[in-house]
Each structure stands twice: as structure tokens, then as C-alpha cells.
Specification:
By secondary structure, the chain is an alpha/beta fold. The chain has a domain at 84-104 and 220-401: Rossmann fold, CATH 3.40.50.1100. It has helices at residues 15-21, 40-45, 51-63, 69-79, 107-125, 138-147, 166-173, 188-199, 202-207, 218-221, 223-235, 252-263, 279-286, 310-316, 321-327, 335-349, 355-370, 389-396, 404-410, 423-433, and strands at residues 3-5, 30-32, 86-89, 93-97, 129-134, 153-160, 179-184, 209-212, 243-247, 269-274, 328-332, 377-381, 417-419. The strands form three sheets. A six-stranded mixed β-sheet has the order 3-4-12-9-10-11, with helices on both faces. A five-stranded parallel β-sheet has the order 8-5-6-7-13. Strand 9, helix 12 (252-263) and strand 10 form a beta-alpha-beta unit. Helix 16 (335-349) packs across helix 18 (389-396). The longest helix has 19 residues, at 107-125. The mean pLDDT is 93. The structure holds pyridoxal-5'-phosphate.
Length: 435
């Protein structure tokens, strides 16, 4: 399997090179040259397959001959060692809980797969790798956890001081070992800018192999196709195809679903559900993507004003707006609506939603009202409510139960380096720490 840039101005590369580079030299994002297609018999066997088996079979199509089967089996078995249950709330609505990984958010899927893939590729080359990641919270903790103790790889996390939740900060900053957290006096956008600058800096490139762990890396996208198949497997066969509602920010999660559909999974419709950061729903209406500064909301992991995976969506549909509109239906919701649905779902079903998943439920409800024929909806639950305890308390009047693995972090001491919002210091830090 070869990978190409969405901008078509870089050579095609192997999976290994695409993963270790992060993004293409022309600034585009890597995509498979051809979207692999699943055999019919895979879809027939699907209901009997466990998650790691699904991951191995789908993953093998993206890996081609670059990863020996027994290594791929080991990677997916270790990466996905937690359940991925589909929970029914009423007759039509289902919740796919992607929140049972170590950091309680769906980003564990991407981060854990990527860490093991990079470890394999780096071991092969014998080089030392530095992974840089800018985070508004969830990405950093998933990446830090996933790479902890991986030999040959050092991780540098940039996060905005004072703008992540306490639980998120503890998950980023208490690990130590090969993980360093830089607490940047600036916004998430500043962190992202610094990371991007480091990735293209010639002085850094000369001395170290630096790559990105942000959602542009194809190694994070590939595993985000797996759970769409797992959801369909658990839902079971029926005449009506499922509708997937995806709470979205950078649109990596939704892009994983679009790939799964292109690979052969039966899907009636995707719903792009956003908070007030609605540039993609707006694009679906007007045909124009107008990026803007992100707005702060209670579903902060989706506060993105210029979604990085949008380029992949447009690429996948060859810029055909009508085709994009046939597959993706967009809608956006306010914080008030989000709090209200959290309250209503708790009251009606005794089920506690985190604010991101709540946006997905709103998306499904809105779509289902206009499309009575849509028989079955699957909302991707992107985080565990305990990660957003303050918001949950506001919505339902009580704090959610704290899972053991999150509580364990809260007692540990924070270890981070306060860092100015300036590139020369970052350059110096990266170069010095490598010697
Ligand atoms: C990252 C994140 C999202 C948004 O996912 P994208 O792939 O960026 O669209 C939604 N919810 C939670 C909890 C997240 O951490």
C-alpha cells in the first residue's frame, strides 16, 4: 500500500515513511493511493469477530506487506485491550462507547495504534525518534499514555497554560520517563503553531528525527476506521443501514467513518455534529469553508476553527460537493442545548453523557426528526463523563463516578516545564535535550 499527499506535489511513500513523517513535504496530508476494499466474506463474518480481529483484518489492508502478520496481531491485541460496547438507549438510538481506554477518550484508539506502529518502524531503523504534539487536552493525554516507556521514542507535549481541565493536566504532566510536558503561556493555536514550526525547521531536522502525533498522522486515522465495523457487528443485520452521528472538531473521527464506508461498510448517513465551531456544517450549506478563530465551549475538545482533516474529506470526494452532501449531514448546537440534552438523557435513561457525546446525540435527534425512515442511529461516545465532571455536574446536578484509573492520576504531582510562547526557546530545548 502506497500513500500520497492530498496536495499531489510530493512523491508517493510507504506506510512507514508516511507515519514517521507525519505530514507530506508539500504540506498536504497522507492518504492511501487507493482505498482498500473489503472482501464480502469479511462483512458476513463481521458479527462473529472480536475487536482485535476486526482491527487486524482491516489494518492489514492499510499495512500491505510492510508489517508481518504476527507483528500486526501483537500491535492490535496490545493497543485495543479494552471493551468497545454498543449500548442501546431506546429503540432507535445506540451509543458506541469509545471511552474505555486508559485516558477515557476515543483518542486512545489512534494514539495507542500509532505508538506501537512507530515503535516497530523505529526499531527497524535503529534511530531515536522525537514525537511532538500540541494539545488542547485529550490528544496529549492519550499520546503521553500510549508512548510511555516506549524505547527509542521521546515525546514532547505542548499545552496551553490554564486552558485544560485539571484531570486532563494531570494525565499530561504526571508520567515522567520519556514524556516531557511544556506548559506554554499561550493558546492551543500558539502551541500548534510552535509544533508546526519545529516540524519544518532545518536546524532541528539536521540533528533529530522529529514527527507529529497530531491527528494529521495517518497512523491515527487508520484505527479510527476499525470501530465503525465493530459498531455494525454489534448492531446486527437489518434492512436499514445505520446512521452514524459523530461529535466533531478536527474531523479525524468522521473521516475514519467515511473511509470505512468506502471500504465497503453499509452506512446510510453520517452526521457531522459540532458545537458553536460550525465551519463544516456551514460548508455543507454554503459550499465554502471559511476558517475562523475557535470559540470556547463546554465541549472543548471540539473547539476547532480550521479542521485539519477537512482536506482529507474533500480529497476523498474529489471535491464533489453534491457527493459530500449525500454522505454527510451537518448540524451545530449551543452549550445550552448540550446541557439540556445531558439533563434529559440522564433523566429519561439514567445514562450520563459527556458534553461531546451530547452534541452527537443532539445531531442524531435533529436528523431523526426530519428523517423518520432512519431506523437506527449510532452516536460515537468520544469521552467518559468523568473527564468533564464540572460540566456534568452543571447539567445533571451530580458529579459522575470517577473511574479508578482517572482517580489514580489526580493524586500524583504535576511535573511540567513553564515555557514561553516563542519558537527560538523551543528550538533550543529540542536540540539541547537530544544531546
Ligand atoms: C478530539 C475529540 C473530539 C473531536 O474529534 P475529531 O476527530 O477531532 O473530530 C470529540 N470529542 C472528544 C472527547 C475528543 O477528545
Amino acid at each position: 500500500m502506497k500513500y500520497r499527499s492530498t496536495l499531489h506535489r510530493s512523491p508517493e511513500v510507504s506506510l512507514r515513511e508516511a507515519v514517521l513523517r507525519g505530514s507530506a513535504p508539500d504540506g498536504g496530508l497522507y492518504m492511501p493511493v487507493e482505498i482498500p476494499h473489503l472482501q464480502k466474506d469479511f462483512l458476513e463474518r463481521l458479527p462473529s469477530l472480536a475487536f482485535p480481529e476486526i482491527a487486524r483484518e482491516v489494518g492489514a489492508l492499510f499495512a500491505g506487506d510492510e508489517i508481518p502478520p504476527q507483528i500486526l496481531t501483537k500491535i492490535v491485541t496490545e493497543a485495543f485491550n479494552f471493551p468497545v460496547p454498543l449500548v442501546a438507549l431506546g429503540e432507535r438510538l445506540h451509543i458506541l462507547e469509545l471511552s474505555h481506554g486508559p485516558t477515557l477518550a476515543f483518542k486512545d484508539f489512534g494514539a495507542r495504534f500509532m505508538a506501537r506502529l512507530m515503535e516497530y518502524f523505529v526499531q527497524e531503523s535503529g534511530k531515536q525518534l522525537t514525537v511532538i504534539v500540541a494539545t488542547s487536552g485529550d490528544t496529549g493525554s492519550a499520546v503521553a499514555q500510549a508512548f510511555l516507556g516506549v524505547s527509542g521514542i521521546r515525546v514532547v507535549i505542548l499545552y496551553p497554560a490554564g486552558r485544560v481541565s485539571d484531570a486532563q493536566e494531570k494525565q499530561l504532566t504526571t508520567l515522567g520517563q520519556n514524556i516531557t510536558a511544556l506548559e506554554v503561556s499561550g493558546s492551543f493555536d500558539d502551541c500548534q503553531r510552535l509544533a508546526k514550526q519545529a516540524l519544518v525547521d532545518p536546524a532541528i531536522a539536521e540533528k533529530l528525527t522529529l514527527t507529529s502525533a497530531n491527528s494529521i498522522n495517518i497512523a491515527r486515522l487508520i484505527p479510527q476506521t476499525f470501530y465503525y465495523f465493530a459498531a455494525a457487528a454489534q448492531l446486527g443485520p437489518s434492512e436499514s443501514l445505520p446512521v452514524f452521528s459523530v461529535p466533531s472538531g478536527n474531523f479525524g473521527n468522521l473521516t475514519g467513518g467515511l473511509l470505512a464506508k468506502r471500504m465497503g461498510l453499509g452506512v446510510a448517513q453520517f452526521i457531522a455534529a459540532t458545537n458553536a465551531n460550525d465551519v463544516v456544517p456551514e460548508f455543507l450549506r454554503s459550499g465554502k469553508l471559511i476558517p475562523r478563530a475557535s470559540r470556547h465551549t463546554i465541549s472543548n475538545a471540539m473547539d476547532v476553527g480550521n479542521p485539519s482533516n477537512f482536506a482529507r474529506i474533500v480529497d476523498l470526494y474529489d471535491n464533489d460537493l453534491q457527493a459530500i452532501r449525500r454522505d454527510i449531514w451537518g448540524c451545530s448546537f449551543s452549550d445550552e442545548e448540550t446541557l439540556r440534552i445531558m439533563h434529559d438523557v440522564e433523566e429519561r435513561h439514567g445514562y450520563v453523557l459527556d458534553p461531546h457525546t451530547a452534541v452527537g446525540v443532539l445531531g442524531w435527534q435533529c436528523f431523526a426528526k426530519q428523517n423518520q425512515s432512519a431506523a437506527r442511529g449510532i452516536v460515537l461516545a468520544t469521552a467518559h463523563p468523568a473527564k468533564f465532571a464540572e460540566v456534568v455536574e452543571r447539567a445533571v446536578g451530580a458529579r459522575p463516578n470517577m473511574p479508578e484509573r482517572l482517580a489514580a492520576f489526580l493524586d500524583r504531582p504535576k511535573k511540567s516545564i513553564s515555557f514561553p510562547n516563542r519558537f527560538p526557546e523551543l528550538q533550543e530545548f529540542l536540540l539541547a535535550a537530544n544531546t
